[in-house]
Amino acid sequence: MPDTAAPARAKPRLRPGDRVFSGSALAAGTLILAILAGVAAFLIIESVPVVTTDPKDINILDGQPFWSYVAPLVFGTLWSSAIALLMAVPVSIGIALFISHYAPRRLAQGLGYIIDLLAAVPSVVFGLWGGNVLAPAIQPLYSWLTEHLGWIPLFAGPASGTGRTILTASIVLAVMVLPIITALCREVFLQTPVLHEEAALALGATRWEMIRTAVLPFGRPGIISASMLGLGRALGETMAVAMVLSSSGGITLALLTSSNPGTIAANIALRFAEAFGTNINLLIATGLILFAITLVVNMIARWIIGRRREFSGAN
Amino acid sequence: MAASTSAASGTNIYAAGLLGKRTPWFVLAGCLAASFVLFWLLQAGTPGATLNVAGAIIVGAIFYPLAIYTISLLVEGARKAKDRLVTALVYGAFLLALAPLITLLSTVVANGLARFDLEFFTYSMRSIVGAGGGFVHAMVGTLLMTLTATVISVPIGLMTSVYLVEYGRGPLARAITFFVDVMTGIPSIVAGLFAYSIFALLFGPGTKLGIAGAISLTVLMIPVVVRSSEDMLKLVPNELREASYALGVPKWLTILKVVLPTSIAGIMTGVILAIARIIGETAPLLVAAGFTNNLNYDMLNGRMQSLPVAVYYQYVSPGVDVQAYLDRAWAGALTLILIVMLLNIIARLIARYFAPKSGR
């Protein structure tokens, strides 16, 4: 925060213009806090009927209690995001290292823009691509995996005939969070003190040893918080999952079959248009759970970033 | 297989215990060649099978790190070998990320051009079954809702960033900074549910309006605007503010006449990038603004279609003539990508040509 004005004690007089301007600036700032509180409040108000209504009167629940309806969705949300993150984080670190330390200096910025292009693609286009291009293209691989590696629980058969499995959805999610994690990691890696790098190289380290001893330890909090932000994005991603995944509910670890757990966000998108009455409240209640999960994830990420003020995620 | 190709390249360089500068390229070529031969041999038995080029390239790319590691281990020792392995993996990661980008853009362009015609931009989907029709209703909806969201969120976002940079001290400013950051992570569908809940409580359940869609977009847009303009205001050199104060200009006029004009290019860039981000949002509009086949200019009355939602519905609920619906979906996707790219280019141009001359 740059220290701008004259010292506070030397306040001669407050002009009306000043008062109006600072007042409206303050109001705008508080409004943001109010909006965030409002999001939580309105979702809670709309979720109340789910608790008070008998589960038998909510069509989607079909008589089962609320939590047993939500549990598979929560599992699917966490599971698909975790797989996506598992794929995206190593690749993102690789790309970030490529741009910060490996690519020719002159090309680096342009290559960074290319990765940023991925972030600009709307999620509905990713969904279209994942459902129509990726899923059919990757299906033969799934058949092969279930045939030859079916003894691993993750690859248990029978393989889905359409390729619209939770693994496909996770791959699309991974592609979508890739640019976010990359951008943050790149920024952190570029801030590594040059003296540390040069010292490592001067001691005879190879480039990898320099990165392992100087760059990665310095960037570790950045990598962690970038992954958390990517996780937050993957958890809340709706359209790509809704358009790629063919979900049938149930909790299963098998990645390649046609019976996949759904995710909270995709479930809302798929059901909201036809929902009526208390069904809508039910969907909003699941949305509230999603909101709570992402809020926790984001707050942890921001807290980690906050301890190292020099790199903030949004810039 | 690869070792033989690399051995041919060296004359005396191994004497120094180092691989030649071009050796990795020879190894890569050897790996790809070996992989192609392998695929060709595997498929030679099955008649009519075409060579799986993509598979061969992928397998060759997997071979390469192993090959270069082994060769380097034999010639240069363990430390250099590990370095070469990591270099190969890092380059591989970048190329891996390019693959989805390239296939995505190429399929969108290839499939989208089929219906990227005049009818697409002049017809709505009203009483259209099967082929024909267009997305003009969706484009109008997207334009209106994005514009409304921009009009609401830019003043709020800009004033908040002014507060954070020029006025804010203490716990309130820290709280706002923290929660703005947290707000960037709100799932878009939750923003949609929020807007829907407001209007459901006010006008009864099932109310879906254009303005509700705009409000959900506002929730997503405000934090982006705050963060980008906050960064831009911080770039304004303090000397400018101090010079203005020294001339007796009040603080609010200093902000209005000195600080904001200096950073206006950056702020505009941030706003345009924020628009580019929300214009592709599907989920909140699906929930809050609903879905319609008709042209609707009234934000306060009736459901409103938007481009991403139109693409989504063409995809998930195709009619009998599936191809016609898919073609429209791809054309819509192409339109969306073009809009977003255009906005990004405009933003970069503004950032480059209208950047402040002073400072930095």
Give me some keywords for this one.
heterodimer, A: 315 residues, mainly alpha, MetI-like fold, 0% strand, B: 360 residues, 74% helix, flat, disordered N terminus, Phosphate_transprt_permease (chain B)
Averaged pLDDT of chain B = 85
CATH architecture of the largest domain in chain B: Orthogonal Bundle
Low-confidence stretches of chain B: 1-10
- How many DSSP E strands of chain B? 0
CATH superfamily name of chain A?
Answer: MetI-like
CATH-defined architecture of chain A: Orthogonal Bundle
Helix content of chain A: over 70%
What is the highest CATH level, the class of chain A? Mainly Alpha
Look at the structure and name the CATH superfamily of the largest domain in chain B. MetI-like
How does this structure look, described?
The complex is a heterodimer of chains A (315) and B (360). By secondary structure, chain A is mostly helical. Helix content of chain A is 72%, strand content 0%. Mean pLDDT of chain A is 85; it is low at 311-315. With 360 residues, chain B is an all-alpha fold. Chain B folds into two domains: 20-114, no CATH class; 119-354, MetI-like (MetI-like fold). Chain B has 14 helices and no strands. Chain B is flat, with a radius of gyration of 28 Å. The two termini of chain B are 55 Å apart. The chains are: A mainly alpha (315), B mainly alpha (360). Chains A and B meet through helix 1, helix 2, helix 3, helix 4 and helix 5 of A and helix 4, helix 6, helix 7, helix 8 and helix 9 of B.
